[in-house]
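Appendix B.2, paired examples.
Example (i):
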Amino acid sequence: MTVFRIFVVVLLIPSYFSSYSQQFTYPEPSGGYANFTNVAASHMQYPQHAYDNDKDGPVYISFLLDENGKIFKFIEWESSHSSLTNEARRMIDIVSWKPGTINGVKDTSQVNFVFIFQLHAGGYSFDQKYFEHPERKLYSPHSYYSWRWVTYKEHSEKVPSFSDEAFKTQYLKAVDLIKNKDFKSAYAELKQLYPRDPKNHEVLFQLAVCANELGKSKAACRYINKAIENGNPVAVNFKDSFCTSPD
């Protein structure tokens, strides 16, 4: 069976940001990007039409939010297939949005997404400078950019190989707790598993996720680095956002 992967990268831009001394907040989905990650991981699908026609690649898409958080314009910049674009838009529409602010005042905001649909083995790529082109900056040319990985999903969603059934059962319990946003309980379960298999990259990655959500920045960075060292396929995409303070 062909395994597909979906990556989502979000680029957030306050609209009239022209001075690094200004105070601003990014636009965000209701519940924050952690919630968007859970929603996308649960609902995002590879479009059957694109799958049948062997279409994959990045979808570059932007949308504009008004001061009330209402999407009033979509801009579809580039896509290899219309069904991929439609799925990207569906994921954006599935949550409500909060506008960004400039100096405490709600403002019209531009949000850029890259949805990467990958059908075949091998690397994936996207142009990090794509939205820096002046024609794609719908507001200030001095807008501030911040890339972040939002989610990653595999079609097969295979359960990792564990040393015994009890270990596997406890790991899956922790994953369910994470899906329900009970990061404290999940963290406790995973901490029990860690000494039994300290090189299990899935446990290490989930520990990093929980630590990050609980504000344990040093632990999040430590676990994400260990997950990378032990071969977790997506951990490297979270390193910059998880390692925000020195070890």
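Example (ii):
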Amino acid sequence: MSQVELPTVESESPAKVSSPMAPEPTSKRPLGLSWRASNWFTTLVVGLGLATDTLVYSMIIPVVPFHLEELGYHSVSALTGWLLFAYSAGLVIFTIPIAMLSEHYNARQSPLVFGFIFLIGSQIMFMEAPNYTVMVIARVLQGFASTMVWVVGMALLCDSTPEKYVGRQLGMAMSGMSIGFLAGPPLGGGLYARFGFRGPFICGVIISFADLVGRLLIIERKVALRWNVDPMANQVDAMAPADAEKNADTPANVTLPMQEAEQPMIKLSLLGVVTRLFKSQRAIAVVAVTFLYGITYSAQEPTLPLHLQSVWDLNSKKVGLVYLASVVPTFVSTPLAGWYSDKKGTEWISVLCITLALPWFVVMILQRSLALFIVAFALGAFFFGALLAPVTAELAAVSRSIEGVGYGHVYGAFNLVYGIVGPVVGGQMYAHLKHGWLAIMLLSAALLAVCLALIFCYTGDDPLLAKLMRVMRRRRLS
């Protein structure tokens, strides 16, 4: 019987080439392998994880200040800021080991499932906390659980997504963050008003179990490749449908993309990763932008409820409704910014987002009208929230450009610097300055101006500053 020679595959294609280096699968083909390993399902699961995480995080933002007042605590804005900082401390403490272990063992699903246990435990612990100290410990543990989603989940998404679609898929996954912040504050405020302090936490535990289903169903790309399914290609090895059905339970030769088959993964130490990142101006710039973005965003979290209460006498339920104005616009802006990043590069959309967001932070200083404040809050959030999509896409590009630096490493850096000091800075400024809200908004505007300069000079494969210099050089020569 004659043999039929299959066509060879281009090395730049995400399709597969047989590799003797990969292990033979011994179990049956998983049910629903193609859709469970697809980048669309991965985007859905990661987006759901981000939604659950931000929902659990944000539900207590309009609740905690009022609960602390009921317990008889003073300097509530500062105490709320420290609680939010405790969450960030959990991120800082656990991000580096989780990022390094995830890349070293190339493990994604198991850390996500493991993080679920701590997410549930931290919510129950906070709900039953007898004093402020236990609340702080619970928030640290919640930060640990969140690290799994923000580091491992984002890396998992990039693992299964073709490079040209990374921005789009990250933007769509980031919509989960918008959903969480959309539902969290009003849901938390309403449940607190109706059922008391335990209401928001019981709701959070129930929603977390839906998140667990997705984490258990997902199949990593490295597992799918054993069955000739590559999420990068969104296709199975070329074969007739009848043959595919007949061979569904028979392990085929394991296939890998040519680059993966020929080049073993380089595993760097923590020092090696940090060294390579610090050698890249592009990497330093995007990490710095993430840090400044995090301060700007998270400085408002412990202070906005108190500002709205002080100026317009809003209760926790109404504060939660005001938060809707900052979240609904990002449903449109974040995926749109991710899509544009794939089409034209991260540099253009990043500059546009910051330029159009900055004036609204100044408008939010005004106390003349609640309607004006909400409009400014919404427009600022539309552009400012959209920035997160190109920033995360830029981090993925940094990972691809530096040999040995994986997605887990760069999203570990993202997780490490995002929101690390913002809540404390905001809480302390609001508590100790006569015009605390004014100072926070002016600081935010200044930090955005610094972000704009960094992005203009260093962001993208071809930064805008380099483009401008070439244009000026050509004009001088002509």
